[in-house]
Amino acid sequence: MKFTYYGQSCFLLEGAGKKLLFDPFITHNPLAKDVDVAAIEADYILVSHGHGDHVADLAMLAKQTGATVIAMPEVVTWAKKQGIEKFHEMNFGKFTFDWGTVRMVVATHSSSLPDGGYGGNPAGFVLEIDGKQIYFAGDTGLTIEMKVLADIYNLDYAILPIGGNYTMDVDDALIATKYFDCDKVIGVHYNTFPVIEIDTKVALDKFSRENKTLLLPEIGETIDL
């Protein structure tokens, strides 16, 4: 599998012959100015919640790629108004696609839409794809409900917010890895705005001291999972 980072919480997973794009926020992110948005391809776009830094490019990229949008019903209702036509509505539960399984799980956050409307429940995703189990937490604080994931999955990777203020910080993310028993983390949702800036060396050192791996790919970088 391949992981390509586009900044903030936007990334692409490639596996099982499919391209899955998450939380598209690129053109409004100055740190992602060198990303060639026109070259992005996707079969599915998964949206964790309705905030602008997760859906700003949803309409544009869904139309460009012809992707099917997977999101909460309230986000889908808003997206339909933006002219998007292909959807798979979900809520907290599991669905098996022809390429793998998606479970939407609880995230402790808020969710409103760019027009001010209600964005439904914020969520994360657990994917079973290409023989791997990958957890994307979405925007969330540390929550005891993460512990249930250890009863269901043997996670290979967790994609976690680490910027603090709106979400978990590095210390909380480390605690979370003990809740769901996963030692390999890809950090997202940091450094985009001053309030979520972190010292990446300190973050890497903290994970290393706990014998855990924190991956912080550069924007535009692709890594193998």
Averaged pLDDT, please? Answer: 97
| Contiguous helical run count | 6
- What is the oligomeric state here? single chain
The low-confidence runs, each spanning 5 or more residues with pLDDT under 50, are none
Proportion of residues in helical segments: 10-25%
- Kindly name the structural category: alpha/beta
Q: Span from first to last CA?
A: 5 Å
The fold-level CATH name is Metallo-beta-lactamase, Chain A
- Dominant shape: globular
- Second-tier CATH architecture: 4-Layer Sandwich
> What is the radius of gyration computed over CA atoms, rounded to a whole number of angstroms?
16 Å
Strand order of the largest sheet: 6-5-4-3-2-1-14
The CATH homology group name: Ribonuclease Z/Hydroxyacylglutathione hydrolase-like
What fraction strand? 25-35%
N to C succession of SSEs: EEEEHHEHEEEEEHEHEHEE
Main sheet characteristics? 7 strands, mixed
